[in-house]
Structures are given as C-alpha cells and as structure tokens.
Amino acid sequence: PLAPPSPAVQSAGDLENAEHTAGVISELVATACGFRLQRSPDPPFKRLSVVFGEHTFLVTVSGQKIFVVKRQKHLREPVAV
After folding, report:
1. For the chain: N or C, fewer Cβ within 10 A?
2. What's the predicted TM-score (pTM) here?
C-alpha cells in the first residue's frame, strides 16, 4: 500500500505549490489502489489519466512516489471532406 498522503516533495509549472491538488491526487491514487482484483503489492495500474476540461493529468506510481504531469489537451478540428 501507498504511504498516507504527504506534502509534495517537488513541484514546478502549473502544479508548483499546489498542495490541495497534490492531496486530491494522492487520495485518488489511494482509492484506485483499493480496487485490486488480486492480492498483489503492485498498484492495479501503471498510469492513471485524469481528464478535466482542457487538461489531462497523467499520474504514475513508482514505489512510494507519485509522479504527476499536467498536459493541455489538443483539441482537433473535424476534417472537412
């Protein structure tokens, strides 16, 4: 299991000093890790994508660390035929 949510160790860009966001993502990961289908020490996922409006948060768990990257979604215009 993951350690209890703790303050962000390092942050930059839009997520710099975003302690509330870090706490919410930690809780989301802990909840997702609770959905294990088999008894395994590994998380039941390798990457978790969270889509909010124009942004996507890509969450990766490695050991006891949670890595988050915030990306802007690229909206594509429909192709006119």
Report:
1. C
2. 0.67
